[in-house]
Protein: NAD(P)-dependent dehydrogenase, short-chain alcohol dehydrogenase family
Amino acid sequence: MSGLLDGKVVVVTGAGGGIGRDMALACAKAGAKVVVNDIGASVSGEGGDTGPAKQVAEEIKAAGGEAVPNTDSVAEPATANAIIQQAVDTYGRVDGVINNAGILRDRIFHKMSEPEWDAVIKVHLYGAYYMSKAAGTFFKEQESGAFVHMTSTSGLIGNFGQANYSAAKLGIAALSKSIALDMQRFNVRSNCIAPFAWSRMIASIPVDTPEQAARVEKMKRMTTAKIAPLAVALLSDKGSDANGQIFAVRANEIFLMSQPRPIRSVHTAEGWTPESVIETALPALKGSFFDLDRSGDIFTWDPI
Structure:
């Protein structure tokens, strides 16, 4: 095996199935040695099974690659450190991290419990931070490395019943940008991918209307393997021009997503009062207000 990631060591979290599995396989095919991390939990994060991580590692080895399984949780600093340390202990270094591990506990905002909020934030946002912090020490010392974080249009645009997931995913985009800014002096890159693909997590979303059912049927045709090529490219040295960017992948489409920037302003020499804001500022800006869109309202066309 040879390719874009020859000689590199890559850690892929949540790699026991779905998008993570395909990215782990693609990294190995491109020449990387892979740490396949997965705790083997349900979509909601409950339970544990060492089988998925081992199975994917065996798939890689059967194809002629090098891989080891790991079943530590990304949601605690000690276990996140252990994941990265296994890469270093096994292969002598770490060059890339794909922060893909995640769970869902969907609930309408006013009905969401604190444990449902905490669990999702902990795995997605805290997990991405802990994994990046653990790898960042090695990246800084060797003056090279790349992160790929999984964000979501649920956070970038919006979605129903996913306040915990959306907050975590938008937080990951900001975390990635901060890492890119802080670590660029050490030749370390950090980018995000918002994936569209049929997976266990998507399959768990309730379908309550014919419109939602139709969207789910379209999602079933978007395979997880479509996400992997961009992830491999961003980890490679030849992808070094991309740093601090947010991409989306939907079947054969790759999007560069916008990042918040000022779009209009209003000014008064006298300064503002609450009354003048209501009378002047808000009406002047109203034409540029954003609608209460959700991801499906923006991505309305069939990509296949």
User: Anything to note?
Assistant: Residues 9-256 form a domain with the Rossmann fold fold (CATH 3.40.50.720).
